[in-house]
Amino acid sequence: MENAVKESPVKIVTIKKSFPVSGMSCASCASSVENTLKGEPGVVHAAVNYANGEASVEYEPAIADVHHFKQAVQASGYDLVIEETENSKEELDKQKENYYHTLRNRTILSVIFSVPIVLIAMVFTNIPYAGFIMWALATPVVLIFGKQFFINAWKQAKHGSANMDTLVALSTGIAYLFSVFNTLYPQFWTSRGLEAHVYFEAAAVVISFILLGKMLEEKAKSNTSSAIKKLIGLQPKTVVIIAENGTEKIIKISEVQVGDRVLVKPGDKIAVDGKVFSGNSFVDESMISGEPIAVEKKKDENVFAGTINQKGSFVFEATKVGSDTLLAHIIKTVQEAQGSKAPVQKLVDKIAGIFVPVVMGIAILSFIVWMVAGGDNALTHGLLAMITVLVIACPCALGLATPTAIMVGVGRGAENGILIKDAESLEQAKNINTIILDKTGTITEGHPQVIDIVWKNDANIPEFSSLFYSLESQSEHPLAEAVSQYFQSKEIEKTEAKLFESITGAGVSADYKDEKYYAGSLKLISEKQILIPRELKSKSDQWLDEANTVIWFANEKNALAAVAIADKIKTSSKEGIQQLQAMGIEVYMVTGDNERTAAAVSKNVGIKNFKAETLPSQKADFVKELQQQGKKVAMVGDGINDSHALALADVSIAMGKGTDIAMDVAKMTLISSDLSHIPKAIQLSKQTVKVIRQNLFWAFIYNIIGIPIAAGILYPFTGFLLNPMIAGAAMAMSSVSVVSNSLRLKWIKLKYD
After folding, report:
1. Helix, strand, or coil here: 39?
2. Set 165, 349, 422, 438: catalytic member
3. Which of 105, 139, 362, 694 gives a 20 to 30 Å CA spacing to 346?
4. Domains of the chain
5. Among residues 259, 244, 262, 215, which one has the least CA distance to residue 99?
6. pLDDT digit string (tens) for 656-702?
């Protein structure tokens, strides 16, 4: 289905949602659920993350039905939670908490019962009725505290599949039943001159260790999503709104409507996005932007959900509520990114899908080999080898290796003001060796302002000011907006112009009194062969040398006015660029601005390579040109004109204060629009990939070495046969060690922290 959709020339409307999955105990479970969902009609893509217990499904709403998804997943032995109400989320969190407490209680009781069994088996072997005492103690451990393994294994067996629970149930079940038989009928062996061994301690200790491992794994997994919990915790439950009659009223956050006026007192968390209506204060935005310095908020300034008011009080008007707020967008993006899969995960998924059947095959083969070549103790050794192989094999470590690292890495990025859209971009960022920076809004503040205007000596300034204002007010370009704001502040009226036309990458034109007028760049003036008076030319040269941008206003023959527009360079830009260069990354600047302004800006921030007067299509062409040279290119921009280049880049980075389209296209967003966050993102990528490789190495090496030793490969040379209890401990600790290694990312110092 997925390939068919990709090849279809028709644009298909799809929905992407995440659903919690219950009943999964290892990576092979996740693989089974994923394959089930992929086989459903209308599903374009499905990915199941064992680490966070969620399925991310992209589907066509016209064909697919989420209720069918649930039925299909239930038919395969698991369950899918499709309800999305606030109560269902709270209920799910409560279920997870109850599961952890139940697991903890079972683990404690299991250990309490197992300790005396081990003491009897190892130390007090000759006490009367030793076998019956161990049987009595082992029974609750295996059949009560460990019952989940048998229940889940039976569910899988009914659907013709197997998972980690199958391995645990088979190994402990065989050990327990064999021991019960030997306790009740020891003469079966003694009459043949053999000793009737019992393995109650192995069955009980394996259950105990695996329960302990599961408990530690659950605790560690919950820590990997601490970033999401912090973000969700930023949302207050209630708000104070100012009614039309001026009275204060407390309402739930879910009841806030766009246009409501919300009162914020000192220390309050801001509930929704809005614009300050009255009052002023300083607001701590560090939880969203990563910037520690509080930002001053005055009338008409934007405020964001989740940020914390400092000392003053103010009233703001809600502009975005519910899922439309910046905080909600960040939470959703982080959740989706944490649930996404890195490219390296594809191989792991394939292995996980066949892991359990292969292990069962190895266990049976080990038993057969021991029975054929094992001598007097063939049955005992064969049984132990089979049990130990089943116990030591750990698909969980494989399944947790990549997603836990991704979850922590994405969360760490969010805490540092770096919003990462998917696992692939987090993995790819480490390969960046070339970065292209847009100028306006990326290197500069993106708030251009008119600082001066000069007119041709004989120009009719009042009439042409009105016409110039009229032309620029119809343009969507940020520089045109700066000119419009300048004339608006001078309280100049617009003149009605006809046949308005936008000239891509150059400016605008319109007709007035049977003559064509232009407003735009020097490139436009040159193309139209318009003469520039000496007094305008000398002034414009001076402005250009000062890194200002010059906009021209002209008729068909002469330039009538030149406007100097300044866009202040961000204080963090130079430092961020120097950090990138220190990492050995080539930095380029591209801009639609003129050559001299581009040269002045690039000189100020220390960029040697720049391209000026580039159209949006030329920016994209430049990305392709560098990629053809074998370079891994990151594009950083903030505007609609950057979206094509962003889409083509190996890693695309948007400024958080830019346009929505740039943020939608980009794979990463710098919420604070601070370039010094890019080196942090690259460092985070390198550290995350390093941890993933460590996790995968230990997960693979553990199974590659552990399974043959469990099968008894060392016995002919050393007489060593691995005890199932030791195998159980090793199996439990392998998963915990992988998750713990991933959690190190939370505390690893990024180079530019």
Report:
1. coil
2. 438
3. 362
4. 2-83 (3.30.70.100), 92-226+336-407+689-746 (no CATH), 240-268+273-320 (2.70.150.10), 412-445+569-677 (3.40.50.1000), 449-566 (3.40.1110.10)
5. 215
6. 765 555 567 788 888 877 888 899 999 999 999 999 999 888 888 88
